[in-house]
Specification:
This protein is an alpha+beta fold. It is built from two helices and five strands; from the N terminus they run βαββββα. The radius of gyration is 13 Å and the shape is globular.
């Protein structure tokens, strides 16, 4: 598996390609170096409604509560969903690098 980004959402592409199958709306969050730092999931959306809103959530490894989340206004509008994922990714990366200064 190619981990080309500093923060990688494993399974995200499969979720998109499935047409937003709810059983695929989750996976691991892994750094470029292969460290699993948590998990992601998408909640609150209707896979049968392309205009449905929803929310990306990130839970850090070893924690039981959502650490960061980001809402999107429309499931099938890349600008809305993509912006939310980009914002969440940036937040996770900043949090991770603050806790691991030698990594950044």
């Amino acid at each position: 598996m190619d981990l080309i980004y500093p923060i990688n959402f494993i399974g995200h592409d499969e979720w998109l390609q499935s047409g937003y199958d709810q059983s695929l709306s989750q996976g691991d969050v892994i750094t470029r170096d292969g460290e699993v730092i948590g998990s992601w999931r998408v909640v609150g959306y209707d896979p049968d409604n392309e205009y449905s809103s929803g929310r990306f959530e990130f839970t850090a490894s070893g924690e039981d509560v959502v650490k960061f989340d980001e809402e999107f206004a429309s499931l099938d509008v890349r600008m809305s969903r993509g912006f939310a994922l980009s914002t969440l990714t940036r937040t996770i990366r900043e949090w991770y690098e603050a806790d691991n200064p030698k990594i950044s």
